[in-house]
Amino acid sequence: MATKFNKEKFKKEILDHVRNFSRKTLSDATPQELYQAVAFATRDILTDDWIETQHVYNAEAPKTLYYLSMEFLVGRALGNNLLNLGIIDQVQEVLKELNIKIDLSLIEDQEPDAGLGNGGLGRLAACFLDSLSTLSYPAYGCGIRYNYGIFKQEIKDGYQIEHPDDWLANGNPWEVKRNDNAQEVKFGGTVYSYCDENGNVHYEQKDFQSVLAIPYDMPILGYKNGFVNGLRLWDAEAPEKFVLRFFDQGAYEKAVQQQTLAKTLVEVLYPNDNHYQGKALRLKQQYFFVSATVQSAIAKFKKSNANIYDLPQKVVFQMNDTHPAIAVAELIRILIDEENLGWDDAFYITTHTCAYTNHTIMIEALETWPIELFKTLLPRVYQIIEEINRRFCIELREVHHMPENIIHDMAIVCDGQIKMAYLAIVGSFSVNGVAAIHTEILKNDLLKNFYNIYPDKFNNKTNGITQRRWLGHSNPELANLITETIGDDWYTDLTALKKLTPYAQDSAFIDAYSKIKHNNKLRLAKYIKENNNIIVNPDSIFDVQVKRLHEYKRQLMNVLNILMLYNEIKANPNGNYVPRTFIFGAKAAPGYRRAKLIIKLINSVANLINNDPDVKDYITVVFIENYCVSNAEIIIPAANVSEQISTASKEASGTSNMKFMLNGALTIGTLDGANIEIYEEVGDDNIFIFGLTCEEVLSLYKSGSYNPWDIYNHDEDINKVLKQLINGTIIHSASDLFIELYESLLNRAGDNLADPYFILKDLRPYHEAQAKVAKAYLDQKNWNKMAIINTACSGKFSSDRTIKQYAEDIWHIKPLILPKK
Ligand code: 26Q
Questions:
Q1: pLDDT of residue 247
Q2: Is 69 a pocket residue for ligand 1 (Cβ < 6 Å)?
Q3: CA of residue 7 to ligand 1 center, whole Å
Q4: Helix (DSSP H) and strand (DSSP E) numbers for the chain
Q5: Would you put residue 398 in left (φ > 0), alpha (ψ -120 to 50) or beta?
């Protein structure tokens, strides 16, 4: 059912677009103008598929998933769309025949990333959309059309500087505005209740401010199946713009307020990752897109269904973390206030329609909102949350016979705060974690009280990634080699990679595989030369840690190990060392001071090492600016070593670990998140595991018996490195710059434990594991075998597998069959 490609039509569209939109001939068009032209021509092709998919939707009215997420970190669309349409070669021919001199990949580089997410959670949502369409499941992604996505990072004098990400500056060729589906969302005001003649109580919100939610749909294509779902991103507009013309003071003021609200609402993505900040605007954003989505889902449902009680058979809302958890209360509100249902029916329908995914056990990431703020902003929704809580506490007392102290701990509304995770659990029929160990920690630790009363709600869905983008698109040479060797089934069934296992013993295959890795390293070396002006040795180990900067991810431990290595070489400059390039990429939340200081430390250590003639042949340190989806596509295929070194229990799953594995990097990692499942797939011989286990970490927290000074006093090498943080070794002129980091590793401060992430505790085992990595790399043939085994064993980590599990176990949705063309 692959889309028909009409070469002459495609050519004409490119020429017409350049002519009509840029008033130019092709030879004068800039690369950006060429991108726009190719994107519009491509959009024209997929539009027919999109319309057709919509027709089937309308005819069949299948059960539909609404994936609610504050973040969709999609990245670029052009290359991915060409891949999924199966027309890359044809488009390349067209460019050639049109005498266009620049490469398709350079045209693709003109597209700004759709960076509407921070990291793992947002990228997971994007991979899920790709899998949903490839598997033909009826689904919408629902989120916010931020005017500014995740900030652009510049490194200046070693420090992170943030710049706004004006991703819509040149327009967005992929989106379609849908005025006909606009929704009104109401904020503030007062709730009045009145009794009708039958004695039923009704509620009405008055004196509110309203915002118009306008959807923009972006097409999400399945892989060569003609299936197109929509990513629906809501923009905000002020209603009744005309009111501004009136002189009535009250109306004028209100109109201005509404304008301001609409303008600020969707302005920018909050750049926090795994850290909660209780800002009123964030809560407004959450309610805005959730209310618009729930309203439009119900309106659509009612078009083809007469009975509102059938909602759970036709609609499922998956809440991506607690950020959209307000959906629970909003759905109850609509069912009661607008559909005139009683509480019990509204609650039953809601708790059979909503499902919740937890992505973190980090206490500082758990969302709670002050009652006062909530009540002022969303008075009716607050009443409903209070009522959910009141009834829940009664259930705990009367049905589950819970003691009062436990009821207090489990209450949704308590001590002036609303706990969104508890609201999500009580309001959902499914609660899932994102890797096996993470789900176990939820059940036995963080959410154990809830697990005790609702054991059947809890389930695991180990994360996955889409092989279309993370191998097919980002590593085309390896994709081709694999297809030549075992066929192309892997595009839609990643477990087919298992067939590569025997080729790990095949010299010709090993050579071809390692040649491709080398080419990918050259491609990254070129990127680094252009962006950092650093020349890296492509024969050195490319050792990569790319992810958000967070203390629990322990980039600091990586740096301390580099300093230990540096000291070893300085002490014995004539020794034999395996050359290594340490590559970092990481954005820090703009308000996270310590994370930003760690970026400065990495850059300062890079400066020290890259300019030291004693060591620069053995170690190079590179910090790649502005880590994002599009440079991840260059970085990951070039890696030999994948750094997955979080404090055990802290990384819910991780997903870059899977991307690296797929592309043949060996993991050095802790037994945390999905690393454990990677370990199970590849076995002991093909991974470097070190450090504390989850159990050990959790029991050290409980006993409080960890004292980093023991390590400081007994391990000379670690002692030396710590002193170097504060004695001017790293920056001669500013020896006190990193005192904060030194202190955080050794001394407690207020509520903060000393070395809360066990960096010093795991540093020696990490250093030893790194020595094993170096030794293993010397045997290139065996290293390549291990790399091939990693690729061959990565089948489990396709988001296709994850999505099938969600669809079958939680959502109960079925693939839609499109008519044959
Ligand atoms: C919350 C409130 C206010 C402002 C921001 C936030 C906020 C935003 C983003 C809180 C958390 C996040 C992101 C969390 C996240 O990315 N978690 C990651 O999810 C991945 C997908 O499941 C996992 O693989 C990672 O382990 C997990 O860290």
A1: 57
A2: no
A3: 43
A4: 32, 25
A5: alpha
Helix (H, G, I), strand (E, B) or coil at 4: coil
Ligand 1, atom 24, lies closest to the CA of: 654
Judge whether 420 and 369 are in contact, CB under 8 Å.
Answer: yes
Q: How far is the CA of 650 from the centre of ligand 1 (A)?
A: 12
Residue nearest to atom 11 of ligand 1 (CA): 274
**278 in ligand 1 pocket by Cβ < 6 Å?**
no
Task: Show the 3-state SS of 178-239.
Answer: CHHHCEEEEECCEEEEEECCCCCEEEEEECCEEEEEEEEEEEEECCCCCCEEEEEEEEEECC
pTM above 0.85, yes or no: yes
pLDDT at 1: 46
Tens digits of per-residue pLDDT, 314-351?
A: 999 999 999 999 999 999 999 999 999 999 999 999 99
Query: Given ligand 1 and candidates 73, 269, 273, which is best to mutate, with the most ligand atoms within 8 Å of its CB?
Result: 273
Q: Give me Rg for the CA atoms of the chain.
A: 27
Structure tokens at 311: 């909602």
pLDDT digit string, tens, across residues 364-411? 899 999 999 999 999 999 999 999 999 999 999 999 999 999 999 999
Helices 780-792 and 507-532: angle between axes, nearest 10 degrees:
90
> Could you report the per-residue pLDDT of 215-250, keeping only the tens digit for each?
999 999 999 999 999 999 999 999 876 555 555 667
Phi, psi of 512 (to 5 degrees): -65, -40
End-to-end Cα, the chain, rounded Å: 6
Q: Is 124 in the pocket of ligand 1 (CB under 6 A)?
A: yes
Q: Give one DSSP letter per residue of 331-375, joined into a string.
A: HHHIIIIIT---HHHHHHHHHTTEEEE-----GGGS-EEEHHHHH
Residues shown for the chain: 821
Query: Cα separation of 691 and 554, whole Å?
Result: 12
Question: SS3 for 469-492, per residue?
Answer: HHHHHCCHHHHHHHHHHHCCHHHC
CA of 193: how far to CAs of 190, 265, 336, 387, 789, in Å? Answer: 10, 29, 13, 15, 66
| Whole-number Cα distances in Å, 738 to 414, 599, 716, 726, 757 | 40, 11, 20, 6, 18
Pocket test for ligand 1, best of 146, 321, 647 (most atoms within 8 A of CB): 321
DSSP β-bridge partners for residue 133: none
Which residues are part of the catalytic machinery? 359, 547-548, 553, 655, 659
Please give the distance, rounded to the nearest whole angstrom, from the Cα atom of residue 121 to the centre of ligand 1: 5
Query: 118: Cβ below 6 Å to ligand 1?
Result: yes
Q: What domains can be seen in the chain, in order of their start residue? A: 61-76+111-363+423-463+805-811 (3.40.50.2000), 467-532+540-797 (3.40.50.2000)
Structure tokens that stand for 196 in this block? 């009708």
Measured in Å, residue 613 CA sits from the centre of ligand 1 at: 41
Segment 6-31 shows an average pLDDT of: 96
470 lines ligand 1 (CB under 6 A): no
Q: What angle do CA 357, 362, 363 make, to 5 degrees?
A: 105
Reading the block at residue 323, the tokens are 């950020």
Q: In angstroms, what is the span from residue 359 Cα to ligand 1's centroid?
A: 6
Q: How far is the CA of 362 from the centre of ligand 1 (A)?
A: 10
- Both tokens of 198, joined, read 């039958």
Q: DSSP secondary structure string, 321-337?
A: SSTTTTHHHHHHHIIII
673 CB under 6 A from ligand 1?
yes
C-alpha span between 147 and 165 (Å, rounded): 8
d(CA 31, CA 29): 7
d(CA 302, CA 291): 17
Q: Is 324 in the pocket of ligand 1 (CB under 6 A)?
A: no
Q: Is the CB of 655 under 6 A from ligand 1?
A: yes
> In this structure, which long-range contacts are made by residues 412-417, counting pairs with CB atoms below 8 Å and at least 24 apart in sequence?
412/385, 412/388, 413/371, 413/385, 413/386, 413/389, 416/370, 416/371, 416/372, 417/368, 417/369, 417/370, 417/371
